[in-house]
Structure to design on (719 residues):
């Protein structure tokens, strides 16, 4: 009996509910509420809300209003008329309110919206008419659900898309309650999830603080935002912590709109977004990115003004085991520098940047100092650098060495255009500078660049117990660069210099080097191919180690001397009193007319020929003259005439009959240089009869100094 009573009561209640819902639906003019909603949106935002069809009521335990083809107008000048188009809107309404002829929306479901964000059209605040009357419609939204949304944004550089599969927003109950949200979607081909809470938007727009605590993730990436904004309309009183972790920095570069690059390694970032110091900026910035085998970077500091990207102060560190691995990442050649470590304090100023407390380690090289870069009508660079050890080999990588065609000189372009655009002052001091086989110490160099003219004056230092000084210049003002070089070295121990380069061929042998060159061109090879000037090397008393001679693994100089010296097989050493190499350059051809000479206690060597810097070709000839008392005839029983040909990169030795020496020592050299002194119609016996070939080499083409009273030879070698 009780069961029958219950069933009867339920049936009666259901019938009454149906009657009530039908009565409520009959009593409400939904078309009138469409107009109310349109007026409300226009009043609050200044935008037009349009319904593409009638609003229908779906009866049920929870009645729902359904509207299709709803749109919100875009700003004037937008790329399309509508900012938002919606396929379907379903609003669950409270039944008691319907009976009072009100629509109280408790849950809103938006299906397949298409949202366009561009040119500030997303700003819907304070765009309406506050004097217009509002409608009697009340909202008590307990849940907003958006399904299958398509979001586009156009920042002027192209249109980006995001798919929002689901967004659920649930207002927290109570006065000023915030919002709980959960979103799932896809952006730039990446699946993402977002969850957290925010403050009450209405309360925030009315001047209340707007707290936020949100975490998001996509494959390999986690993002967190936590803090508050005191005034959301003015975006002031900001104090928000930001965190980002990703397995690959390259993905973040791509998501930020950068070009595609190879894998860079993980990224970790934490910072605080704040306007406590005035403009909105970043405080407590801590970033690490990359991996040490290619490039690992850490930075700590702050950014004073985020919008203008000014007021940057960073402590920066970078490390790479091999920078050449960046070539595959960036898609371009990067020199392969090993064991690179860099630390510096980076700060921007009103017109440029300053890097202070620089500490750079590359291989065995160590460099410290400060660099300042300023912008303006002309860019300005100022650097003050100090090196305990500086090895040029540490800064010469595999990429771009310019020696892929068998040439010794690189096809290195001169930075002429950059020189025209920037002024610079650079001071470099190096306790030890290693350049190939040379070891320099106490190097001081000062470079100035003004209006396209670079001058390095002076540069000086020590080398192998001696001293050197010089100057260099490069003028980039014309169509082609014009370069000049002056170098003077004195009291240099060339035996020590050779030992430092790995050869024990010479013991002792103090001397000097003088170079004066001038050339024109846009790269190193062009400068060499147009060079004019002179170069002269002189070496004093020393001892040649004969055991260092040999074809296998020996340098070209020792091989030439080994062939020309008939005493090399019978003696361990050969004392020399002098050696000279004297060349004059004209239009890229370095010529020596008996300007190459070696005097020893047993045999003298004389040489002539050319080095063509236009193609790096060699054609040098050498012939010996045996001295009295060695059992060798001055006229005939000497070693054969030796010819050095080929190129600077691959020289080739050959031994000719002695009769060919006449041409190489006189006629050949004169013809090749277009007019160096012919030294008369000398026969071979007169050439080899020169008792002081070093004096002849030093004075090449000039009138010989008279004997007595010291003279040129005595002045140079103290004899």
């Amino acid at each position: 009996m009780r069961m029958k009573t219950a069933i009867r009561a339920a049936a009666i209640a259901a019938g009454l509910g149906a009657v009530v819902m039908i009565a409520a639906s009959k009593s409400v003019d939904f078309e009138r509420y469409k107009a109310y909603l349109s007026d409300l949106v226009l009043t609050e935002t200044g935008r037009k809300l349009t319904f593409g069809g009638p609003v229908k009521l779906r009866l049920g335990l929870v009645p729902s209003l359904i509207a299709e083809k709803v749109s919100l107008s875009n700003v004037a000048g937008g790329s399309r008329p509508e900012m938002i188009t919606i396929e379907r809107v379903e609003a669950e309404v409270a039944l008691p309110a319907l009976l009072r002829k009100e629509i109280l929306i408790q849950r809103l479901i938006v299906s397949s919206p298409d949202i366009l964000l561009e040119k500030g059209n997303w700003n819907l605040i304070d765009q309406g008419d506050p004097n217009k009357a509002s409608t009697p419609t009340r909202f008590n939204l307990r849940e907003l659900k958006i399904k299958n949304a398509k979001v586009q944004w156009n920042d002027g550089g192209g249109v980006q898309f995001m798919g929002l599969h689901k967004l659920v927003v649930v207002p927290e109950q109570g006065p000023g309650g915030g919002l709980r949200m959960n979103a799932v979607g896809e952006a730039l081909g990446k699946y993402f999830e977002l969850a957290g809470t925010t403050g009450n938007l209405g309360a925030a727009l009315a001047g209340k603080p707007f707290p936020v605590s949100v975490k998001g993730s996509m494959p390999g990436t986690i993002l967190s935002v936590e803090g508050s904004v005191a005034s959301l309309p003015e975006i002031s009183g900001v104090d928000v912590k930001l965190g980002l972790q990703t397995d690959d920095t390259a993905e973040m570069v791509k998501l930020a709109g950068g070009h595609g690059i190879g894998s860079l390694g993980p990224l970790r970032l934490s910072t605080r977004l704040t306007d406590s110091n005035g403009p909105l900026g970043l405080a407590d910035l801590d970033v690490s990115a990359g991996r040490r085998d290619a490039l690992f970077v850490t930075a700590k500091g702050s950014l004073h003004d985020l919008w203008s990207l000014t007021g940057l102060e960073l402590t920066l560190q970078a490390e790479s085991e091999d920078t050449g691995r960046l070539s595959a990442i960036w898609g371009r050649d990067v020199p392969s520098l090993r064991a690179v470590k860099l630390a510096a304090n980076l700060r921007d100023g009103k017109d440029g940047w300053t890097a202070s407390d620089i500490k750079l380690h590359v291989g065995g090289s160590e460099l410290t100092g400060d660099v300042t870069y300023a912008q303006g009508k002309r860019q300005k660079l100022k650097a003050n650098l100090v090196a305990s050890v500086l090895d040029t080999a540490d800064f010469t990588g595999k990429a771009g060495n310019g020696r892929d065609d068998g040439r010794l000189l690189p096809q290195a372009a001169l930075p002429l255009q950059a020189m025209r655009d920037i002024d610079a002052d650079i001071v470099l001091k190096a306790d030890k500078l290693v350049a190939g086989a040379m070891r320099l110490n106490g190097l001081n160099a000062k470079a100035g660049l003004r209006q396209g003219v670079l001058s390095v004056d002076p540069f000086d230092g020590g080398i192998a117990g001696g001293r050197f000084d010089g100057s260099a210049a490069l003028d980039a003002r014309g169509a082609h660069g014009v370069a000049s070089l002056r170098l003077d070295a004195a009291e240099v121990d060339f035996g020590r210099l050779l030992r430092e380069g790995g050869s024990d061929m010479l013991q002792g042998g103090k001397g000097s080097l003088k170079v004066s060159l001038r050339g024109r061109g846009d790269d190193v090879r062009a400068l060499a191919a147009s060079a004019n000037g002179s170069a002269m090397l002189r070496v004093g008393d020393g001892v040649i180690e004969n055991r260092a001679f040999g074809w296998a693994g020996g340098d070209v100089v020792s091989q030439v001397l080994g062939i020309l010296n008939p005493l090399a097989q019978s003696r361990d050493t050969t004392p020399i009193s002098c050696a000279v190499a004297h060349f004059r350059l004209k239009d890229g051809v370095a010529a020596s007319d008996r300007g190459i000479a070696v005097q020893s206690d047993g045999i003298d060597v004389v040489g002539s020929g050319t080095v063509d810097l236009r193609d790096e070709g060699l054609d040098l000839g050498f012939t010996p003259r045996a001295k009295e008392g060695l059992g060798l005839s001055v006229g005939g029983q000497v070693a054969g005439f030796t010819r050095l040909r080929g190129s600077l990169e691959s020289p080739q030795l050959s031994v000719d009959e002695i009769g060919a020496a006449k041409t190489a020592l006189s006629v050949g050299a004169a013809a090749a240089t277009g007019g160096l002194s012919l030294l008369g119609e000398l026969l071979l016996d007169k050439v080899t009869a020169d008792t002081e070939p070093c004096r002849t080499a030093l004075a090449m083409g000039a009138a010989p100094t008279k004997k007595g009273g010291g003279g040129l030879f005595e002045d140079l070698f103290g004899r």
